[in-house]
Description:
globular, alpha/beta, single chain, 38% helix, 13 strands
Amino acid sequence: MCKKWTSRVQRMIGMIASVLFVSGCGGAELENKTFPLAVVIAQQKGQHTICYLAQQLSDVANERADGGNMTAADASGSTYYETHKTFEKNNRCQLDMTHTKAVVFQNGFLESSAFMQFLDTVRSENTYARNTLVYLSDSKMDELAELNSTLEVPLGSYLEQMTENEQEMKEQAFATLGALLNEQANASRVLLLPVLEVQRGLPVITSYEVLQGFEAKGRIGLEEAQIYFLLAGQLKQMDVYLDEREQVRLSKLKCKRRFTMEDGKVTQRLVLTADAERITGNAGQARIEEALKNRIEEACRSQMDEKGVDLTDSGRYLALYAPEVYRVYGRRGQEYRRNLVCEGEVRIRVL
């Protein structure tokens, strides 16, 4: 019995010593770290410029601390890695990206070679979480830095809250570093990146940049983006404005695809089903179905004609749902899209 008690005491002493050791070393290490909640990245005249919107040490445990406790500092270099290291050297600290909520690329970064270098570095260094949100912005770096200090919460936390409070979109609709890394490796789908603008002191999503085959294809409006998310099964609900007096809310949204091919021409029939609840007005089932069908077909047709973008992202479904089409076109995406026609069919149950 005495031996057991002695053994327990020894284990307890060892645990206490371990906790004290870890706490002491961890505290000293934290003093030399910087924790960016958001990172703004640009390339200008062949040089990377990065602004780290970091949280002060005293608020690391509270990632939604008041924005006034934030710091903003930037650095430059010929590559992302060099810029990262330059910042650490100049500020005598170590950057810890594990708390980073959002990465914001400034206009033109996607089209530069710096974009691929950044992703290669992120993949090899494994410093960011894969669920880190990704945005584009035309706003100047100092505007975003100023925004970071004037919001009620830090910019990174604010953007995270925007996604958490989103009632319409599912989680998989939000662009992340993980999605970008997957697309860099596979180049197999259409991906939308939200574009931020500063309006009345707040960050607002005003449009989306389209990546198709991991190439930037230009921007689309919010209505076109909504159709993309709808057909991708990434909406929880959708408000449809028929006119000034009639509005309905759709839920239980599902989209099925049917492919047929004749003489090399591919027809994709999109069959959308949903429940509809009238918010205002007395729109009937037929009116709702026709309005949404026209909206889907017009958005898909216009984006294909203007940008060569398949807003339905149909290529990723061919191997599973249309193997005969996949055997003909395989990875010849551009030729496939030239021969693609999209038709809509909407079936609504009015509640």
